Amino acid sequence: MSLLEVKNLSFGYSRATPFEIQALKDVSFNIDEGELVSVIGHTGSGKSTLMQMLNALLTPEQGEVLLEGKNIHESKTSAYEARFRVGLCFQYPEYQLFCETCAEDIAFGPKNMGLPPDEIRERVKQAARFVGLDEALLDHSPFDLSGGQKRRCAIAGVMAMRPKILILDEPTAGLDPAGRSAVLDMILHYRQETGATVIIVTHSMEIAAAVSDRILVLNQGALVFDSTPAEIFSHYEALVSMGLNVPSFTKIIYALQKRGLHVQNAYTAQAAADAICAMLHAEETSP
Amino acid sequence: MEQDTLLKFENVSYTYEEEEENNRLAVRNISFEIKKGEFIVVLGHNGSGKSTIAKLSNSIYLPTSGRVLVDGMDTSVEENEIPCRKKIGVVFQNPDNQIVASIVEEDVAFGPENLNLPQKEIRARVDEALKAVGMYEYRLHETHRLSGGQKQRVAIAGIIAMRPAGIVLDEPTAMLDPKGRADILETVHTLNKELGMTVVLITHFMEEALHADRIFVINDAVVERTGTPDEIFSDAAFLETCGLELPDTAKLCLLLKKRGVSLPDRIFTPEALIEELVRQTERA
Ligand SMILES: Nc1ncnc2c1ncn2[C@@H]1O[C@H](COP(=O)(O)OP(=O)(O)OP(=O)(O)O)[C@@H](O)[C@H]1O
Ligand SMILES: Nc1ncnc2c1ncn2[C@@H]1O[C@H](COP(=O)(O)OP(=O)(O)OP(=O)(O)O)[C@@H](O)[C@H]1O
Ligand SMILES: [Mg+2]
Ligand SMILES: [Mg+2]
Hints:
By secondary structure, chain A is of the alpha/beta class.
């Protein structure tokens, strides 16, 4: 049994109106304990809708979500519990900070879980450490923080619930390059330390290629690919036709292949550098 | 001021009201000039002052000190407010702040309607703008039900439909998928090349700066450096101190050089690297 089993999910918005939208169509997949899975797909493909279904903020019209074998949408209690066990950090979460201090914002989830004050304090501190938020900032208003710091504060709030599954909906959108790598590093570090299962929604093919064990591709509400980065990014044309692409490094490799050069496929900067070196070396030594 | 200057900042500083007591400046004594028809990309870390500069560009904010001139008009002079906003359109960072109507095509028509254009002209501009951003099929949809990326595109269409002399886009591609990003970039480059529209593009993606005429690097409320993409991207250490990075191709070049591959300096675009590698294999 997988940690998370998603079975035949379907969902539509604005039913019985002229604006009816089928946001998810018969989506099924499994996620195992400890996996890091990325979800990619064009804008409006249903990624955020799907994520909100995995922690029971939305209820599917058809299909079910099983967490450790139990249907999270079965009852009000199971849905409520799912919010803590599957921690969802929204797209642009900084717009949802509302407490007087950062510490209170981070403590919001743990408080709702009914944890004792000592435990909450401990968790707030630990989560702040994970995201690299200076302890001195914890007493500040979240509105005093920079964009990148707000994002970290919001992510810490989800981490503090110590969810079994941590979902981050576009965690690096709007961050500067330094902020992007800092937030990614901190997610990877959190995962390493806690063994948590992580799902990342992203529009960056480079990030999906660099961090994922597996990638899910949504297209117009349907799950069209569920595979390793190598397998996914071998479908160049299919991805382009869905509004996606391959990582920038892969594009260079494919262009070289098109020019008749023998170079191995690669999906990250390091792998592309290795492949190109091997190609140049082979050219030199060939007669 | 010269005739061919669209936007000029003269020793501009700006303080947000909330920050007045701390004496903290969001923008500190900056000066620059943007020529008609230029394509400028603005890079800078979070909180460096980019959005503040965008809002100073068409009189949404007025300088605390210094002057902003739009086609020679001082934005601080009250009568100039409307003419300045017609000259330079700003697409905000958060599209939710920008959507005004409940139906997509009404939202895009809002600007042109205020220009008192004939109905037929408005219709044509709205359709053209929606097609340019790939949202034509959504023209009858409700705006509040769109995804983030879809809203962003509608906001851009709203500005394009006004046909301003210049357009400032504040991170227009932050929420978009790869095709959406490429489409928006192509759209703004076309507006620049074919209609001669001046473009100021604010972004956190180095790749989007590769084909700019000039790049402005903002750092801690000042314009730290301006230069061509070649000039700016040749200084990796400088980029890092500003919280920025090399474009992907340049990163790959660095890794190749570390592995002993000899490459000329200043390769920043994929096309340049591909040509160089093909050349090297042909020589071998
Ligand atoms: N509250 C809502 N009411 C009606 N339709 C909605 C609502 N939220 C989303 N939709 C529609 O459902 C579809 C899926 O939206 P969703 O937000 O899940 O996409 P997404 O893949 O997360 O997109 P993005 O990459 O832009 O964040 C879109 O067509 C969107 O317009
Ligand atoms: N409404 C506001 N009130 C008070 N301070 C503000 C306000 N908006 C921005 N600031 C502050 O002004 C400075 C510049 O902000 P600005 O939004 O211009 O940065 P930016 O470069 O656009 O950042 P980002 O890349 O995160 O969008 C920051 O220190 C920010 O905290
Ligand atoms: Mg989304
Ligand atoms: Mg900004």
